From TrEMBL, chain A:
Entry protein name: E3 ubiquitin-protein ligase AMFR
Species this chain originates from: Zophobas morio
CUE domain boundaries: 466-508
GO biological process: endoplasmic reticulum unfolded protein response; protein K48-linked ubiquitination; ubiquitin-dependent protein catabolic process
SUPFAM superfamilies linked to this entry: RING/U-box (SSF57850)
Automatic annotation (TrEMBL), chain B:
GO molecular function: ATP binding; ubiquitin conjugating enzyme activity
One Pfam family of this chain: UQ_con
CDD domains in alphabetical order: UBCc_UBE2G2
PROSITE patterns: UBC_1, UBC_2
Keyword annotations: ATP-binding, Nucleotide-binding, Transferase, Ubl conjugation pathway
Keyword check for ATP-binding: yes
Entry annotated with the keyword Transferase: yes
Purpose of the protein: Accepts ubiquitin from the E1 complex and catalyzes its covalent attachment to other proteins. In vitro catalyzes 'Lys-48'-linked polyubiquitination. Involved in endoplasmic reticulum-associated degradation (ERAD). Required for sterol-induced ubiquitination of 3-hydroxy-3-methylglutaryl coenzyme A reductase and its subsequent proteasomal degradation.
UniProt protein name: Ubiquitin-conjugating enzyme E2 G2
EC number: 2.3.2.23
Organism: Zophobas morio
Enzyme class: transferase
């Protein structure tokens, strides 16, 4: 964004810069008018290769009168222009003037719509600006490898305009995200921002038309190169507009929630998947277009061992990873959603009436809810978005057997179990908080502060036969707990007594599978149970040595 | 979506103002941004931080309550579980996937049923009972274990400073 460029470089202020630009341009125009006063200027320029030597050439050709004086106004202007085009200094002055215009427009838009930019917005803008400049530089000089100055100029002006709109779009997105943090944003700010977004979208449509027009004459490749960025711009802008609309709808819903009808509630329930799929659609489309665009550049540039193609390859790799990541996330979403639908029933209306509490995730009233095996109720969408990232009941931490085999976030159990971890015996202090004092569904909880002492840290992992013997010992006492769970706990505790203690204290319980026979088999993930149940009383254990070597912890 | 996060934060704010827990005040720094809160925590009675009023800042992510907020004291603090820059290190503020080494059980970690109020109450209890195994501030943890007198002196100085009393 040119506006932020001003903050960055040691430049005079905007007023100085723009008046300087105007003066420089006037000087060039004056120079051009002086030149064309000479009737021989045209012939002179034609015969001159180096325009800088113009004057001398004019002197040489003085005798050669080829063009009669007496021009119309239109011709006069076009003559002035053609002189200026030939003179590098004038060309740069004009480019400078164009930039000055962009900056002025940018500043005006900023003043009108955004007001003072926030620090993060400025930073974001700067990064985006330099990123854009870098990639377009690579594109113009590395990929299409333009030979002529006027081609360079055309591409540059195209990309300047495009970059300008990209940056405005980015800024609008940032600002929208910021505005959505507040419930008291005046309507006027929303209107201004939406109008700007609409204008950007319209302009990108116009630019798409231009690129179609140019592509009609310049061939398919030119069209593809030009339109890809424009399409990206319009997709991103439209994405922001739609998110904005959804957000405003959300907030309006909030305002009228007390008198909402059944019909509205149904729409409200459906909103989750709709929002999700629009998000997914926009993100994936943008990524794929960007990917194809870069692939096209790589294939077209035909020089695989240049710096430019290296950069493009890096970008391709990045985009590929992004697409992959997004796809995996989507698979996980589908998996969790199917799992929810198949294993956990919707709560009946009696259950809803009985349970008068709000959804514990969003704190809003539940018109419909999904019931987990532990009888905790949540909104379907709330539960879904939580289970996408964690596989336990938010309230009671009951481990649910949701583990998408394709996207296991947690390392295979063996890896974790085999790492000999120093074990600690705790001397604990309790802090008890009785949540029901405030709201009936708030759970009571205790914060337990542990004073840990290292306990047999060097002990070698118990061998399997030993473990089995110990596990059988425990299972005699607690036949309802599966042997694998006990073994896993024993691997950590390495002591029958501590494991028994864990069972007695409820830290080690049978996995959900044992209560819910028809959920997905848990064979691939016994650790999840262990992790949530075996050592609930460790509030936070950080090894000293590790912290001194790695103090940055978030 | 920031919309649901915003509504949840508004609900929490409402609840905190209607039914404030003892010794804790919290709310958005300004109404224009509900994702940055300021909290004032009174040092728990009967501890070395008794009487102090400690200001802290809470920054909420856009997907709150799915992810935990970040908390940072804005006054000088000397405590085993508080980094030198004021960031608080307690398990309730850690997202479930954050700790690959498995030092913390996920049951103590963040979950969407946690709330600002619960976080602040945990912090109060942390002030009362530091966990010297979690060396966010190694010097403080060491002093807490080995030289309690000195620790109490420093704490007292900090308390005085938060109250604006010259030390
Ligand atoms: Zn909900
Ligand atoms: Zn539950």
């Amino acid at each position: 964004m040119p506006v932020t460029l001003l903050d960055r470089l040691p430049m005079p202020n905007l007023r100085m810069y723009s008046s300087g630009s105007v003066v420089a341009l006037s000087a060039c125009v004056y120079y051009a008018t002086q030149v064309i006063k000479d009737p021989n200027w045209s012939a002179a320029a034609d015969s001159a290769d180096i325009v800088g030597l113009h004057k001398e050439v004019v002197d040489l050709n003085k005798s050669n009168a080829s063009m009669p004086d007496g021009r119309s106004m239109g011709q006069y202007v076009s003559d002035v222009f053609s002189v200026m085009i030939r003179e590098p200094v004038c060309v740069w002055t004009m480019i400078n003037m164009a930039f000055c215009w962009l900056i002025l427009v940018g500043t005006a838009v900023q003043k009108l719509v955004f007001g003072e930019l926030r620090v993060s917005e400025q930073q974001h803008l700067k990064d985006k600006f330099w990123n854009f400049v870098f990639y377009k530089f690579i594109f113009v000089f590395g990929i299409i490898n333009v030979q002529y100055i006027d081609e360079v100029l055309l591409w540059c002006s195209w990309f300047s305009l495009l970059g300008f709109l990209h940056l405005l779009s980015q800024l609008s997105k940032d600002r929208f995200e910021y505005l959505s943090f507040s419930p008291t944003t005046p309507l006027w700010s929303h209107v201004k921002l939406l109008a700007l977004l609409g204008a950007i979208f319209a302009l990108s449509g116009f630019m798409l038309l231009v690129s179609v027009f140019v592509g009609f004459f310049g061939g398919f490749n030119t069209f593809a190169f030009m339109s890809a960025e424009v399409v990206l711009l319009s997709i991103r802008t439209l994405h922001v507009i739609i998110r904005y609309a959804l957000h405003l709808y959300d907030m309006r819903q909030e305002g009228s929630s007390s008198v909402s009808t059944n019909e509205e509630n149904r729409v409200w329930e459906k909103r989750g998947p709709i929002a999700y799929y629009t998000e997914l659609g926009f993100e994936l489309t943008a990524l794929i277009i960007d990917f194809v665009h870069h692939l096209h550049m790589l294939v077209w540039s035909n020089i695989f061992l240049s710096m430019a193609s290296l950069v493009i390859c890096m970008q391709l790799r990045y985009l590929f990873h992004e697409i992959q990541r997004r796809y995996k996330k989507h698979r996980n979403y589908l998996w969790v959603r199917n799992h929810l639908e198949q294993n956990y029933p919707m709560a009946s209306s009696e259950e809803l009436v009985e349970n008068s509490d709000n959804c514990a995730i969003c704190w809003e009233k539940m018109e419909s809810a999904r019931k987990l095996p532990c009888t905790h109720l949540f909104h379907n969408t709330c539960l879904l978005s939580w289970l996408e990232q964690d596989t336990s009941c938010p309230t009671c931490r009951l481990a649910l057997n949701i583990q998408n085999p394709s996207t296991s976030r947690i390392d295979p159990p063996d890896l974790q179990v085999d790492v000999p971890q120093p074990q600690r015996r705790q001397l604990n202090h309790f802090f008890h908080f009785d949540g029901s004092r405030y709201v009936s569904w708030l759970p009571s909880f205790s914060v337990e502060v542990s004073h840990n002492q290292l306990m047999r840290p060097e002990a070698a992992p118990a061998s399997n036969s030993q473990l089995d013997a110990m596990a059988r010992q425990v299972q005699q006492l607690f036949p309802h707990i599966p042997i694998t769970t006990i073994i896993n706990d024993l691997r950590v505790t390495r002591s029958v007594e501590i494991t028994i203690e864990n069972v007695l204290d409820g830290r080690l319980v049978a996995p959900a599978m044992y209560r819910e026979p028809d959920v997905v088999p848990s064979a691939n993930r016994p650790m999840s149970v262990l992790q949530t149940n075996c050592d609930t009383n460790l509030q936070q254990e950080r090894n000293w040595d590790e912290l001194s070597t790695d103090p940055v912890e978030t | 979506m920031a919309g649901s996060a915003l509504r949840r934060l508004m609900a929490e704010y409402k609840q905190l103002t209607l039914n404030p827990p003892e010794g804790i005040i919290a709310g958005p720094i300004n109404e224009e941004n509900f994702f940055e809160w300021e909290a004032l925590i009174t040092g728990p009675e009967g501890t070395c931080f008794e009487g102090g009023v400690f200001p802290a800042k809470l920054i909420f992510p856009a997907d709150y309550p799915l992810s935990p907020p970040k908390m940072q004291f804005t006054c000088e603090m000397f405590h085993p579980n508080i980094y030198a820059d004021g960031r608080v290190c307690i398990s309730i503020l850690h997202a479930p996937g954050d700790d690959p080494m498995g030092y913390e059980s996920s049951a103590e970690r963040w979950s969407p049923v946690q709330s600002v109020e619960k976080i602040l109450l945990s912090v109060v209890s942390m002030l009362a009972e530091p966990n010297d195994e979690s060396g966010a501030n190694v010097d403080a943890a060491k002093m807490w274990r080995e030289n309690r007198e000195e620790f109490n002196k420093i704490a007292e100085r900090i308390v005085r400073r938060t109250l604006g009393i010259p030390t």
